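This protein record is not my work; I was only asked to verify it. The record follows directly below this note.
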Amino acid sequence: MVVDGKPVQVDQGATIEEVAFAAGLPMKGWDAPIAAVLDNRLVALGSVLYDGAEVRLIRPGDADGREVYRRSLTVVLQSAVRNVHPGVELVAGQSLGGGVYYEWKGGGNGEPTPEAVAALDREMHRIVKANVQIEMLRVSTRQAVRMFADLGFADRVLLLGSWWHESVRLVRLGDYLDVRHGPVAPTTGRPRSRSVVPLRGGVLRRFQEG
């Protein structure tokens, strides 16, 4: 098969990430692969290779990689807020100045204090530094409904009530679980975290762009 334009020999059943690791590529930080294009499809690095496959590795600075990076950092952010502020919900809003604004719901007066935002920022950096696995799974829709119900995610239960597929792809990190709308990084060490700052009753999550 061909990886980044070079023919390589791989064992049957090997994943893209295993091939990248065997090739000595960095597996953490901005230069590490975050996803791949497998025969013209954007896929996660955990995808299994097959004979005759053509693979192009995607990094966070690439056009496709930026979307994967931002989606992955969202997972880190949502996991972090559940760790340090369990009663708070962050609702994504508009893009602003190299980041995304999130409305802060819950948590006492409904507006984040500087101390609360600083604690969230520290937790995000801790999760990134720990480089733990971001789990991607596929379960039956019925099982997904039970999982979201157990976590109290009423909006996701409502969403899956009209889901016409028999199964659903999920992403999980710590106590955070959500429907997966595309590939994410395999570990939290791939997406670099920039600061989270308070902004007009919510927070602004900034992106690293190189």
Remarks:
- The two ends are 30 Å apart (CA to CA).
- The mean pLDDT is 88.
- Residues 135-179 form one domain.
